[in-house]
Design goal:
- This protein has about 180 residues and is mainly alpha-helical.
- The protein has 2 domains: about 5-90, 3-Layer(aba) Sandwich (Rossmann fold), CATH 3.40.50; about 110-180, Orthogonal Bundle (Arc Repressor Mutant, subunit A).
- Helix content is about 55%, strand content about 5%.
- The protein has helices spanning about 5-15, 35-45, 60-65, 80-90, 110-120, 120-130, 135-145, 150-160, 165-180, and strands at about 20-25, 50-55, 70-75.
- A 3-stranded parallel β-sheet has the order 1-2-3, sandwiched between helices.
Length: about 180
């Protein structure tokens, strides 16, 4: 199944829950940076995701893996590397590009933020993504088919888990992970 934008990819994953693998481009229209990966992993935990990106720097690769990617494939990879990555994921493993330094020091603030983001439920991750798109609680409730009170409860839980005081601060925290310079 092929999708030209993120919403179509989400629907394809919903329609094909037994898919063996999802290839997710970080520059896919309808999402920004690693936000799409966060949402896809929250909504479709049983489908392994291989991220594809032109940005193959260590922080981008590390963040993708920390957020649940099973592989990171650079757009500059040759056909053999792509085949290796897909085979590794289909075998239940992980794959990173040659030269990726998993031992390199990471930013403790970002590590802490990733840990907090991972505590969000799938629905809370969806709500946070929709807040990031600028939707109001009433609009989010309509889109998800729940009450506005339910959305308010999710927003309160998100703020608590991310240790922030406002929706804006929550989006800024998410943006620290999702919209890194060079991610495309």
């Amino acid at each position: 199944v092929e999708a030209s934008d993120f919403d179509t990819a989400r629907q394809a994953a919903t329609d094909n829950p037994d898919a063996d693998l999802m290839l997710l481009d970080l520059a896919m229209p309808g999402t920004s940076g690693l936000t799409g990966l966060m949402m896809m992993r929250a909504e479709h935990q049983n489908i392994p995701v291989a991220v594809i990106s032109a940005s193959d720097d260590t922080p981008t690769i590390r963040r993708a893996l920390e957020l649940g990617a099973s592989a990171f494939i650079s757009k500059s990879s040759g056909i053999e590397e792509i085949r290796e990555a897909i085979d590794a994921v289909l075998a239940g493993g992980f794959w990173t590009p040659p030269g990726f330094d998993a031992e390199r020091e990471n930013d403790p603030e970002i590590e802490n933020l990733i840990t907090r983001l991972k505590t969000l439920t799938p629905q809370q991750t969806r709500v946070l993504g929709m807040i990031g798109e600028g939707l109001l609680n009433k609009q989010i409730a309509y889109e998800l088919g729940v009450s506005e009170a339910t959305i308010k409860a999710h927003v309160s839980a998100i703020l608590l888990k991310l240790n922030v005081d406002s929706r804006t601060q929550a989006v800024i925290q998410m943006g620290k992970i999702a919209a890194m310079p060079g991610v495309n």
